[in-house]
Design goal:
heterodimer, A: mainly alpha, membrane (chain B), NADH_UbQ_OxRdtase_su1_CS (chain B), transmembrane (chain B), cell membrane (chain B)
Chain lengths: 234, 431
């Protein structure tokens, strides 16, 4: 019963992943599928896998996806553009092929009652998993972690930028501001915020100076440049 | 076998009662914590705090909650409607769910049924809490994104980056607890603390957990996602009415959750404090443990409030480097130390407790002394009372010293109340 419920939710979410117009909605559907998968593990008496599935896949990897989608701002128009010629046809063909193989494979399997689960879980699921991981599969386990660390360090090396000039501390910046003030009389503090003493507190309303004149510095350049009606970029 | 047989045996109505109790406890705790926080912070700032609604102003948060619910519910034009509505729910539901595995007490007689005072337990209960907490982060990220506002997006990203970073050091601080308890289930971790609290045995882990739990819940001094001067309201800038109330609720429940988890994992859970159980055996039976549990939990919540009333907000890069460059390597090193001491103890056939306690204490003392030693190194800033730009002139006779004047409200003609505070008569009374 719970399997049917969970499976139908997962299938709907998986379809949502395929047909959602916005990339964020697709990522969210994927999250639902992953959480559903975790619940399946819980139902199959694999509690450790349940927790790890959520922590690793939903909590870390999919969150990373979301970050990228949100920050890069992938648009619907981008995702529907065909970049490789004949991509859609090829993807369709391969998809049908994969589906056929899956249906054939799963259809051939005979579904009987589960065997060997109580032996595998004897003494506790977590304890048995730990036993296996740190005895029989210890090399594979360590190799995987070494691989992951290598990948992480590789990413850091690629993203690393050598600093040419020394880093400016808060003290340096403050001293620079005071020196600038002594030299050119440039105001020490932050720019006047928009809307100060003005009739509106909207971002494009310039602040009024004590003598009643308007301060051009208080309006962001992007708004002052005639884009005031557009607001943020789409 | 697992020691978890006592769970999952309840009749359905007991489960229903427990679910209801967990829900009620979460909501009432939130109302109480908001009131308590306002009251304590007010006292710290020489104010009285809420004192109008109910005894001691206890019903103030209830009144605020009703007011919040009745406010206009705005949805920004640029918002992604579905996600905008889902986000607060996604933040709140996991907050409630995590309380399911917190043990409030031992096995008790609940309406004639012997049952543990805990909704459920599982072999991976603590991991379950971490997993559900990571789903709660979705609520914040999506809320920030769906609002269609730059402030919200930045606040949401900051908040989630912060929560994910501090979850790492938090998880690593918990590893030593798992090592010592030999289990990930909350009831068994409490069971393992019969003789020694893990807070004493694993002092460095406890300290790391305490720091990262403040980061994890976005509370001061780590409340960068809500840095008003930079981000307005952070991820909930565009939220109003009940949706905002849900985010608020989630934040306070999360505070209670990490406090409850700290109690369970480090301060012996519902066990009577300070060896009270040896003097009075009944202290660990029946419903008394609920009292100990809540006392310990409120201790942590009080620390949250104290921190908020005391410390200024950190700068974002300093905050991140504290998490990744200090807490993370420190907990890794400490895990290795604990593993080595425990393994040596097992092979040598002695108890590792005193070694761990001594070592942990020594490390913590050295670190704390290091901090204390570093502070006076910086020369005290001498301000010349000349009154030249940019320093304004000091008052005559130097800086103001000593405490502020005692709290006095209203004209002196009003007689002082029993608590030494004069309160102006309300308008009706004055007539």
């Amino acid at each position: 019963m719970s399997f049917v419920l969970l499976a139908s939710i997962m299938v709907i979410a998986a379809l949502g992943l395929l047909f959602a117009r916005k990339p964020v909605h697709a990522a969210l559907s994927l999250a639902i599928v992953m959480i559903g998968l975790a619940m399946m593990y819980a139902m199959l008496e694999a509690p450790f896998l349940f927790a790890v599935q959520i922590v690793v896949y939903t909590g870390a990897i999919l969150m990373l996806f979301l970050f990228v989608i949100m920050l890069v701002g992938v648009d619907t128009s981008d995702t529907l553009k065909e970049t490789i010629a004949g991509q859609k046809v090829l993807a369709g063909l391969l998809g049908v092929g994969l589906g056929t193989i899956l249906i054939a494979g799963v259809g051939q399997a005979s579904i009987a009652t589960m065997r060997g689960l109580s032996e595998a879980n004897a003494g506790g699921n977590v304890q048995r998993l730990a036993d296996l991981l740190f005895s029989r599969y210890v090399i594979a386990f360590e190799a995987t972690s070494a691989l992951l660390i290598t990948a992480a360090i590789g990413a850091m090396v690629l993203a690393h930028r050598e600093r040419i000039d020394p880093k400016q501390t808060q003290t340096d910046l403050a001293q620079k501001r005071v020196t600038d003030y002594a030299k050119s009389g440039k105001h020490l503090g932050p720019l006047p915020p928009p809307g100060t003493f003005a009739r509106h507190n909207s971002n494009d309303t310039p602040a009024l100076l004590p003598d009643g004149s308007q301060s051009t510095k208080s309006v962001p350049a992007i708004l002052a440049g005639g884009r005031a009606d557009e607001g943020e970029d789409e | 076998m697992n020691g978890l047989e006592q769970f999952g045996q309840d009749p359905w109505w007991i489960i229903a009662i427990k679910v209801l109790l967990v829900f009620v406890v979460c909501v009432v705790l939130t109302l109480f914590n908001i009131w308590w926080e306002r009251k304590v912070v007010a006292r710290m700032q020489h104010r009285i705090g809420p004192n109008r609604h109910g005894p001691f102003g206890l019903l103030q948060s209830l009144a605020d909650g009703v007011k919040l619910a009745l406010k206009e519910d705005l949805t920004p034009e640029k918002a992604d409607k579905i996600v905008f509505i889902t986000a607060p729910i996604l933040a709140t539901v996991p907050a409630f769910v995590t309380f399911a595995v917190i043990p409030f007490g031992p096995e008790v007689n609940l309406f004639g049924v012997q049952t543990p005072l805990q909704l459920t337990d599982m072999p991976v209960a603590v991991l379950f809490v971490m997993a559900i907490a990571s789903i709660g982060i979705y609520g914040i990220v999506l809320g920030g994104w769906a609002s269609g506002s730059t402030y919200s997006l930045l606040g949401g990203l900051r908040s989630s980056a912060q929560m994910i970073s501090y979850e790492v050091s938090m998880g690593l601080a918990l590893v030593t607890v798992f090592l010592m308890a030999g289990s990930l289930s909350t009831s068994q971790i409490v069971e393992a603390q019969t003789d020694w609290w893990f807070g004493a045995l694993l002092l460095p882990s406890f300290v790391i957990y305490c720091v990262s739990m403040v980061g994890e819940t976005n509370r001061a001094p780590f409340d960068l996602p809500e840095a008003e001067g930079e981000l307005v309201g952070g991820f909930h800038t565009e939220y109003s009415s009940l949706k905002f109330a849900l985010f608020f609720l989630a934040e306070y429940i999360n505070m209670a959750t990490v406090s409850a988890l700290a109690t369970t994992l480090f301060l012996g859970g519902w066990r009577a404090p300070l060896g009270l159980g040896t003097v009075w055996p009944g202290a660990n039976e029946g419903y008394w443990p609920v009292l100990w549990f809540f006392l310990k939990m409120f201790f942590f919540i009080w620390i949250f409030i104290w921190l908020r009333g005391t410390l200024p907000r950190l700068r974002y890069d300093q905050f991140m480097s504290l998490g990744w460059k200090v807490l993370l390597p420190a907990s890794l090193a400490w895990i290795v130390v604990v593993a080595v001491i425990k393994m040596t103890a097992i092979q040598g056939g002695f108890s590792p407790n005193w070694f761990l306690f001594g070592f942990g204490l020594a490390v913590t003392v050295v670190v704390v002394l290091g901090f204390l030693n570093r502070l006076p190194e910086k020369e005290a800033q001498v301000t010349k009372p000349t009154g030249g730009y940019p320093t304004p002139a000091l008052p005559q006779g130097g800086a103001v010293r000593g405490a502020a004047q005692p709290l006095v409200f209203g004209p002196p003609a009003v007689p002082t109340g029993t608590n030494g505070v004069r309160i102006l008569p309300s308008r009706e009374e004055a007539k």
